[in-house]
Amino acid sequence: MPTTLIVLDHPYTLAASENVPHNRSCTAAIAERAIESAHSEGHDVDVIDLHADGFNPVMTREDLVSWRTVQEMDPLVADYQRRLLQADRIVLVLPVWWELMPAITKGFIDRVYAKNVLHTQPGKGRFHSLLKKDVEVVAVTVMSTPKGLYRCLFHRPVVAALRWGICWRSGLKRSRWIPITGVGRTTAERRARMLADFAL
After folding, report:
1. How many other C-beta atoms are found inside a 10 Å radius of the C-beta of residue 110?
2. CA-to-CA separations, 151 to 51, 116, 148, 158, 184, in angstroms, rounded
3. Distance between CA atoms of 82 and 80, rounded to whole angstroms?
4. 157 class by beta-carbon count within 10 Å (0-12 exposed, 13-18 middle, 19+ buried)
């Protein structure tokens, strides 16, 4: 059975997926729908909730040493790496703040997508991913900025970083972007429709 790994980045955690005033997150609600969507496809679902796990996004000197010596330093990072290697589809669900990915998503990439663990770099050529050959990477971004404005004015920096900076450079051929836009002006009715229509 294929496995979908969902990586959620939101300070309120997945617990904020319900529409409870002062403790609700559209990002968490979308992650919950992604879980349901993957289950409906017959996938096993694994969830990494970065804030609930207390993940530290800061790359340290020790982290860089572990990269170069291929030694395990942080058990949580090692656990994430193991789960990524087992995934057939990786879904990153994150808010877009100031048109960029939050620091914890960037730190997840920096610390977890480690050389000689999840990718190699033969010689001076392109990286070579060690993830499953046909793994699909899906970026689900939740933002107030309209899609057209994010694409044309800001040039989709989050998408460019994930699709080209990571997937293309690593030889990962299957990637998609699912933008959830206008959330800052949404109504309860629009939110309900948006969640009902969402699917991976």
Report:
1. 16
2. 28, 34, 5, 10, 18
3. 5
4. middle
Which pLDDT tens digit goes with each residue over 97-143? Answer: 988 899 999 999 999 998 888 888 887 777 889 999 999 999 999 98
Cβ–Cβ under 8 Å, residues 92 and 105: yes
Tokens of 99: 């048109």
DSSP of 120-140: E--TTS--EE-S-TT-EEEEE
Cα 58 from Cα 53, distance rounded (Å): 15
Beta carbons of 128 and 120 less than 8 angstroms apart: yes
Return the amino acid letter for 45: V
Name residues whose C-beta falls within 8 Å of residue 176's C-beta, 6 or more positions apart in sequence. 136, 137, 138, 139
In eight-state DSSP terms, residue 145 is S
- Paired tokens of 180: 């959830």
Q: Which residue has the tokens 């010596």?
A: 69
**Total residues found in the chain within this entry:** 200
pTM (two decimals): 0.92
